[in-house]
Specification:
Rossmann fold; 6 helices; binds flavin mononucleotide
Amino acid sequence: MTEPVLQVIIASTRPGRVGRAFGEWFAEIAREHGGFRVELIDLAEVGLPFLDEPKHPRLGDYQHQHTRDWSATIARGDAYVFVTPEYNYGYNAVLKNAIDFLHNEWHDKAVGFVGYGGIGAGTRAIQQLKQVVTTLRMVPVFEAVNVPFAAKSLDAEGRVVPDPERTAAANAMLDELARVTAKLRPAS
Ligand SMILES: Cc1cc2nc3c(=O)[nH]c(=O)nc-3n(C[C@H](O)[C@H](O)[C@H](O)COP(=O)(O)O)c2cc1C
């Protein structure tokens, strides 16, 4: 049996973002966890335009190569972690767009969240995301990573400074993602 594929999806595309550092930090912990084959996906590199497909994505009848490529990427994931900033009490528009592009590809897969921001620590972004992901039949897990004042957690090289409590939160979420994924996708 091969390990399920966990895709860690970096949502922020903003120049000067801290999101890349938190994505790399979480992906490293996920690799050490050992329950998944980990892929790091950066929406800044995926580079999707605003949704430009004429048909509803549930039909899977995609007109554009960028959509077919994005579909193939997400279809091979067995579980996801969205690494999301909090912008104006919500998650960012780039992530919403990337989610909306697809439909069946997301179904019946566990999803967790690394939320970060200022004082909000990504909590409100995650609450918004839960509403959206359940519409796409994803199964959000309760355990999460929340980071207040995220920029303060980076060192001079822009890497996340290790923190035992945060690492423990990440591993608790990974354990739960593994448990739920085993039920949702027993063949993976
Ligand atoms: C447009 C904008 C809106 C923001 N709104 C919030 C907010 O509502 N709550 C919060 O805690 N932080 C907020 N922040 C702070 C960001 O979460 C913080 O700057 C974070 O680093 C952004 O992620 P990024 O650097 O990966 O893009 C906001 C930042 C921006 C740029």
